[in-house]
Design a protein that fits this description.
Number of helices: 11
Strand order of the largest sheet: 4-3-5-10-6-9
Largest sheet: 6 strands, mixed
Helix content: 40-55%
Shape: elongated
Distance between the termini: 50 Å
Order of helices and strands: HHHEEHEHEHEEHEHEHEHEH
Mean pLDDT: 86
Structural class: alpha/beta
Radius of gyration: 26 Å
Low-confidence stretches: none
Length: 297
């Protein structure tokens, strides 16, 4: 077992890996190239593996060097976060909170959850990014996001630690263009076979649950397409491309703001909502407050 690693040496390696050469890193570190080179050689000897390969006048990371760089990225990014918290009064610490929001989530619901974060005096800036859940969690792994809101549970195969809270759920219903309302409501849900339907991605738990419900009822539908972006799904439904599922918890807002009508409920089919934070932040009071509020919203 390797012990007593000199973390100054690891920091020098990290700077070289970031800047691409010993000469460039030396300028940042205010050390001579000979000193930096010697320290990295000491680290390689301690680890028993090479970190760099020479290519002409430059350096290229070995496979082990690439792995080491990933760990060093995490370590020194966290160290920088910690150093930022030492500046000034900890009780009045302000920060930028970076939130990833899954495309599948209704934005009206997300805005309710984020309201207390916007009003929180300890948060100077709330930076929100939309995307696919897997992409957002990958950004969390590299410390680019502090919080991810999504509609799918945690994938146990993730190669990094994430803490997951279920913050709520809502039964789903079908919505569609207003001129379809009376035609379809009279004999719902059998009338679902008469019009096209837009569903989330084929891999979505919601899509699987809807298909199971329809199979039990013996109803066959025509699928107009699979769309993982909830806003786009609503827009397609509004323009008459097909019915679409949406949470009944935001039924009134969808009908009022999107000019569509509720057609009928999807019995026993729910969309679940989750909040993910990096393992190191699970005890932060801001996140605890957010989860309590979202669960009660």
């Amino acid at each position: 077992m390797i012990t007593n690693i000199n973390y100054n040496h690891l920091y020098y390696f990290w700077q070289v890996s970031r800047h691409g050469s010993i000469a460039a890193a030396s300028k940042v570190l205010h050390l001579t190239p000979q000193t930096v080179s010697a320290q990295i050689t000491s680290l390689e000897q301690r680890l028993g593996k090479s970190l760099f390969l020479r290519e002409g006048r430059g350096l290229r990371l070995t496979e082990f060097g690439q792995i080491t760089q990933q760990y060093a990225d995490d370590m020194f990014t966290i160290a920088n976060e910690w150093l930022e918290t030492t500046q000034g009064d900890i009780s009045s610490l302000s920060r930028t909170l970076k939130v990833g929001i899954s495309d599948a989530l209704p934005k009206s619901l997300v805005s309710k959850w984020l309201a207390p974060l916007i009003e929180n005096e300890r948060i100077a800036n709330l930076h929100c990014i939309d995307g696919q859940q897997a992409e957002l969690l990958a950004q969390m792994a590299t410390h680019k996001l502090d919080l991810v809101l999504a509609d799918k549970p945690l994938d146990s195969s993730l190669p990094f630690k994430v803490f997951c809270h279920e913050i709520g759920k809502s039964q789903l219903g079908f919505f569609g263009a207003k001129d379809w309302q009376y035609k379809l409501q009279a004999n719902y849900p059998k009338t679902l076979s008469e019009v096209p339907v837009v569903l989330p991605a084929k891999s979505s738990p919601v899509t699987s649950a809807i298909h199971y419900w329809l199979d039990e009822l013996g109803i066959e539908i025509s699928i107009a397409g699979h769309v993982d972006d909830s806003a786009l799904m609503v827009a397609l439904g509004q323009q008459g491309f097909g019915l679409f599922p949406a949470p009944l918890s935001v039924k009134d807002e969808i009908e009022r703001n999107r000019d569509v009508s509720f057609i009928g409920p999807i019995k026993n089919v729910y969309q679940h909502y989750y909040a993910f934070t990096p393992d190191r932040l699970i005890k932060d009071s801001i996140y605890s407050e957010f989860v309590r509020y979202a669960q009660g919203a």
